[in-house]
Amino acid sequence: xxxxxxxxxxxxxxxxxxxxxxxxxxxxxxxxxxxxxxxxxxxxxxxxxxxxxxxxxxxxxxxxxxxxxxxxxxxxxxxxxxxxxxxxxxxxxxxxxxxxxxxxxxxxxxxxxxxxxxxxxxxxxxxxxxxxxxxxxxxxxxxxxxxxxxxxxxxxxxxxxxxxxxxxxxxxxxxxxxxxxxxxxxxxxxxxxxxxxxxxxxxxxxxxxxxxxxxxxxxxxxxxxxxxx
Length: 229
What we know:
Layout: E1 12-15, H1 28-44, H2 48-62, H3 65-73, H4 77-84, H5 100-106, E2 110-114, H6 119-128, E3 137-139, E4 145-146, E5 149-150, H7 156-166, E6 173-177, H8 180-188, E7 192-196, H9 205-209, E8 218-220
Parallel strand pairs: 1-2, 1-6, 2-3, 6-7, 7-8
Antiparallel strand pairs: 4-5
Helix pairs in contact: 1-2, 1-4, 2-3
């Protein structure tokens, strides 16, 4: 007798935004990185080279540049996000392929957008992608708070908080993200993890050199693959 593996019950999807739903690295993120560096120059009174170094350093250490600026320099979260994510950043940079919105809608189960980007930016991107009615909740960086301030992905604290907020067991949640750091901590809670490689040209050298790590359950090349899961 052949024993069949019991299929996982899925109640909810946690889906990332940039480089998961759209090609951000070759579009909006270039403008955002430039705007962030410029904002850091203005707010800290330093030159472009040092501002760029701080932007990258805080992103690597905290998961979002704004966390380091707020924590170490007392920079206003809202002020920095407004300066670095202005509406002009999106101009002509987001493209939606025909039928994309319908395919996302057809993915079975409830869907939450989980992004380290600010809410105004996230909602604007969703409108451009015609996905603004496809997600039950949008959890942006402003909503990722905890003791001591912002607690964004990939912090385990944030995944624990989101699972509690969802009100379902972690093993009924599937996390779809292009960033391995985010998937690694989500897996610690028992979530199913999907590594989105929809935009291969955005992967860093480390990601290009390896096969799927042990904490990745599935790897996809396009979001249509979610329809078969």
